[in-house]
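Quick one:
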Amino acid sequence: MRSRELALLQAQRWARILNAWAASLLNLLPPRLAFLILFSFEIGQLRGRRLLERAYQVHVASLLAKKPDQHFAGSLRWCFPVQSAELLVRIGANREAYDLVVQDRLAARSPDLANMMVRSLFELGEFDKAYRLTSQLSLRSGSELECHLAFLKGMIEIIAGSEAGAIESMSVACRGVPDYMRPHQNMASRPAQNYRPNPLDFACGSAGRLFDLCNFTGQRVTHVGRGDLGIRLFARALAAQSELRKATPAVSAEVSHLLGRLGIPLDQLRILPEEWTAQIGHLGMLDILFRMRDLGWWAGKPLIVARPNLVANRTFFRLFERFADVVVIGETVSQAVGEELLSLQRWYGMNFNVFQLPNGEIVPWQEAGALAIVQWEKEVRGHPLRDEYDRIFGAMPKVQDDFRRMRESWGMNPDDWYVCLHARDASHYSEVDGTGQTHRNSTINTYLDAIRAITGRGGWVIKLGGPNSPRLPSLDRAIDYALSDFRSDLMDICLIRNARAFIGTTSGLTNVAISFGIPSALVNCITTDAQLWNSRVRFALKPVRLADGTMLTQAQLTSTPWRWRLFDACVLRRNGAQPLNNTSDEIRAVTEEVVNPASRHATKADSQRLLSRWDEQLTMPHYYGASTISYYYLCKYEDAFLAPGLTSPPTNVPRAAVPRPLAR
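Output:
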């Protein structure tokens, strides 16, 4: 069996080499000849042709960057229009493909081609073109492909503001594919296929279809760098929920009994669906949501509805049991009751994407959360989840014994202090470099100077992360806990709770440290969202540079369009921008600013001068919560990062109305 696996790996290796060699040859040929060869491979159904097409995409992108009107299909477009258009889409010649599809009205002739073309236009953010194309389509619940195309058409229509068309398209999609009747707020819920709709899914009607469609589409436009459109769509989902609440839904006897037992009147029910618990960063958001309730920003009786396989960390999740009632599908309630509760989110769900502030304004959820952090600190409140951890696990002898034995096995003395470190990498989500969220990753070697700075002061560094994360080089007093047998949900949280400081980034584990009030040095940060960071955070952003070497300013990073382009690596590359990892000196400096505040070599006047310049660049003063950017980082990049030019007024809250952080 081992020899067969080795032979397969060897064959795959040679296939990649041959494919790269063939792609290099294609790159040397005139574009139309190369296209003809790829087309002949398609007609002959040659194995490996898709890999060759993907490899040729890079050359196509280079050609089109130099000559946007470059054509590839030649006379083949007249003889084989549909097949030519499909190949044009696959190699990334989207403009030529679109012209061919529109001119020859090919979308109506081939649902496969229409699906490919519209999806490609969507990923490029070319929604107007997609709308013109989908207007050629007349879909009536035919094949499964047509139903998927109807849903895609509905997304394009709701972006264009055609609600009637979007509802009609959603109806077509739902009749043929019941999965589209599943309530939706965020893809983190990772829904299984073969959904069986319940009576509430039918009773919600057009408003329910809009709720699901607007939430899904709002998230997808954010993925392709148009989060500015997402805010409007999420707000429409909230409006659809308000419409649904005008009439009380009829629930089953089982759900009615459950709510009665929990003491939750239906009109006070606030469903927190599975996306709130599916990722550890989302659990950190849940902490802020309950702080918002304590601030008087919302009211009601929350009910967390979770699935056992979609709870990111059971230990951290347990800390919420005193803040809300909790049901786990398949454990404490049946599958049917759980699904019915999730369907009730259309009426009574807490929105995951936007939040309505006490003044009635609807803003992105993270912006509201960042504002809440500022207000929370202004009122000098504590850390509720830290208190819960101490109450539950601080009194458990077994937890303390396991923690002590783990430390002793590493050679730590009882009074030794340590810092937790987490660097985001591609292993957790099996990411392909250069796509999706990979621009948030960094290499562990750039953290070594910071590690030595801590161990040189007598501390230890404990690396957190997944079991497949990159190995930490062998260093004195540095522990690769992520690859150890001690790794568990409980120990992850226990280590963070007892750390002197936390080195992290814009990733989920950081939210745990924030919830516990652990001083945090956050580096390699890049974000579309406002951040939920408290005043114990110092941070450094990834410098983002354009092709000419220009560094995007703080104002640009928090303004449309660049703010929204930061979400995706492909979107950034398509717009000629490249995020760069923080350098070793930057990471060390931010770490020392947190671990050893006395190391900050700055006069008060100079520090205030830089921070004032930075404040002026922010489109909203609470964009990074109550945290402060690294002084070292500002000094290093002052001229480029704080360059005058693009500035915008706060998008949501007047500066005078926003409380300032307690201290710098």
